[in-house]
């Protein structure tokens, strides 16, 4: 049980770390990964990204994870964690 | 409909009592008088530099008619309060909940050589907020085109009869939420205008906002840090400009952040109406202590109990199965509720 849980936690943290790097690098944010909370809203309150950032983010995720991102689901890019949720769902 | 105190979990019975107001905010529109909030006006040639020095956010990048949600620390880097700052050229309005008024006053003290004037708007101004999907059209309906198409975290001023009203979009309870700030003598005029345009508006209380903010993971300084946890444990990184060379309390703030053992997460319990109390221990699947509850409530939308919790940093990850007072649940992504799609996670 514990090994399974630890593996789950480790895998999730690895995915979150990859997405943080992706967001920071592709949007050229002046931040270190540990300075971004994974539940922080990416748009509006929070990191205050804009619509151009959103487009860039969609393209980056599609390229990095070799997947198509639906543009009509506003919940996917709410935070680092919701992006990770989407990627995990897409793998299933 | 009174809460015992800010750290008491909302009971199911209390949620039942609040259900009409809750339904209004989630499906239509609710109105809350928060005139007891602390309200300071900071003006002067050095006002921007002063606020940049005493707040953790970047005031140099705050444009006119923009709102910045940031925080103030004491000299040792301890959290004082979070603050909504309404940006002007040389004039700023600072808003914070009533229970943080003293903390705000302690933080906003310019030095004698700074050309800054601080005026307590206090009882001279009223502050009314409206929340819910049907609030989206309200500012333009009562104040006209000057406030049309307002972005989130922006504000504008407009006339209402003889009064000047400042209206801002903050959305701390969901996608749509606005506040109206005007002089106290115009309060009745403002309320009449709101009720004329939204006759079905339901009166809410500040207590209800604790639940609404919990569902959207809006920060509630009174409820979300029951043990005085570090703001970065609470995920408030976005209130801090990490690149600023200086701000009051910076060194102590970052030194303590390195030692902070926890990380705040959202937990949804499995279909239970039992609301865990603050500081209730959280166990992992093997019965190991991994953290504790900070702020919990029963969510009418999700029909289960939800909580913000502090987990040991190395275990804080979405998907982690947990047990709280015998109830099973798991860590989920924030928020619990997203207004725009009117759907629950």
From TrEMBL, chain A:
<dbReference type="Pfam" id="PF00550">
    <property type="entry name" value="PP-binding"/>
</dbReference>
<dbReference type="InterPro" id="IPR009081">
    <property type="entry name" value="PP-bd_ACP"/>
</dbReference>
<feature type="domain" description="Carrier">
    <location>
        <begin position="13"/>
        <end position="92"/>
    </location>
</feature>
<dbReference type="InterPro" id="IPR036736">
    <property type="entry name" value="ACP-like_sf"/>
</dbReference>
<protein>
    <submittedName>
        <fullName>Acyl carrier protein</fullName>
    </submittedName>
</protein>
TrEMBL record, chain B:
<dbReference type="Pfam" id="PF01571">
    <property type="entry name" value="GCV_T"/>
</dbReference>
<dbReference type="Pfam" id="PF08669">
    <property type="entry name" value="GCV_T_C"/>
</dbReference>
<dbReference type="InterPro" id="IPR029043">
    <property type="entry name" value="GcvT/YgfZ_C"/>
</dbReference>
<feature type="domain" description="Aminomethyltransferase C-terminal">
    <location>
        <begin position="264"/>
        <end position="336"/>
    </location>
</feature>
<dbReference type="GO" id="GO:0008168">
    <property type="term" value="F:methyltransferase activity"/>
</dbReference>
<dbReference type="InterPro" id="IPR027266">
    <property type="entry name" value="TrmE/GcvT-like"/>
</dbReference>
<keyword id="KW-0489">Methyltransferase</keyword>
<dbReference type="InterPro" id="IPR006222">
    <property type="entry name" value="GCVT_N"/>
</dbReference>
<dbReference type="InterPro" id="IPR013977">
    <property type="entry name" value="GcvT_C"/>
</dbReference>
<keyword id="KW-0808">Transferase</keyword>
<dbReference type="GO" id="GO:0032259">
    <property type="term" value="P:methylation"/>
</dbReference>
<feature type="domain" description="GCVT N-terminal">
    <location>
        <begin position="7"/>
        <end position="244"/>
    </location>
</feature>
<protein>
    <submittedName>
        <fullName>Aminomethyltransferase</fullName>
    </submittedName>
</protein>
<dbReference type="InterPro" id="IPR028896">
    <property type="entry name" value="GcvT/YgfZ/DmdA"/>
</dbReference>
């Amino acid at each position: 049980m514990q090994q399974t849980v630890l593996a789950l936690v480790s895998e999730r943290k690895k995915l979150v770390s990859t997405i943080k790097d992706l967001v920071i690098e592709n949007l050229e944010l002046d931040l270190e990964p540990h300075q971004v909370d994974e539940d922080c809203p990416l748009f509006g309150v929070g990191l205050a990204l804009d619509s151009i950032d959103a487009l860039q983010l969609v393209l980056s995720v599609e390229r990095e994870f070799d997947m198509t991102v639906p543009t009509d689901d506003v919940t996917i890019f709410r935070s680092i964690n919701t992006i990770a949720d989407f990627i995990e769902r897409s793998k299933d | 409909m009174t809460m015992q105190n800010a750290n008491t979990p909302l009971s199911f019975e209390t949620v039942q009592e609040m259900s009409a107001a809750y339904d209004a905010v989630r499906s239509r529109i609710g109105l809350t008088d928060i005139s007891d909030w602390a309200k300071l006006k900071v003006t002067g040639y050095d006002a921007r530099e002063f606020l940049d020095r005493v707040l953790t956010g970047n005031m140099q990048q705050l444009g006119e008619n923009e709102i910045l949600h940031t925080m103030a620390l004491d000299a040792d880097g301890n959290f004082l309060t979070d603050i909504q700052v309404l940006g002007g050229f040389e004039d700023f309005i600072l808003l914070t909940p009533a229970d943080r008024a003293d903390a705000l006053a302690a933080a906003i003290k310019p030095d004698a050589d700074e050309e800054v004037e601080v005026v307590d708007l206090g009882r001279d101004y009223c502050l009314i907020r409206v929340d819910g999907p049907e609030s989206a059209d309200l500012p333009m309906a009562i104040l006209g085109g000057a406030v049309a198409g307002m972005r989130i975290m922006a504000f504008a001023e407009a006339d209402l009869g003889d009064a000047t009203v400042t209206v801002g979009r903050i959305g701390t309870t969901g996608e749509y939420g606005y506040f109206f700030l005007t002089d106290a003598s115009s309060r009745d005029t403002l309320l009449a205008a709101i009720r004329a345009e939204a006759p079905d508006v339901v009166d809410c209380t500040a207590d209800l906002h604790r639940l609404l903010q919990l569902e959207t993971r809006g920060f509630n300084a009174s409820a979300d840090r029951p043990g005085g946890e570090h703001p970065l444990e609470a995920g408030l990184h976005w209130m801090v400009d990490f690149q600023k060379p200086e701000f009051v309390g910076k060194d102590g703030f970052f030194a303590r952040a390195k030692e902070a053992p926890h990380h705040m997460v959202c937990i949804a319990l499995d279909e239970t109406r039992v609301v865990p109390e603050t500081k209730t221990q959280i166990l992992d699947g093997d019965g190991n202590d991994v953290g504790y509850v900070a702020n919990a409530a029963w969510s009418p939308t999700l029909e289960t109990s939800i909580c913000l919790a502090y987990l040991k940093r190395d275990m804080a990850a979405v998907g982690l199965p947990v047990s709280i007072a015998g109830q099973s649940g798991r860590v989920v992504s924030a928020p619990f509720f997203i207004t725009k799609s009117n759907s629950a996670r």
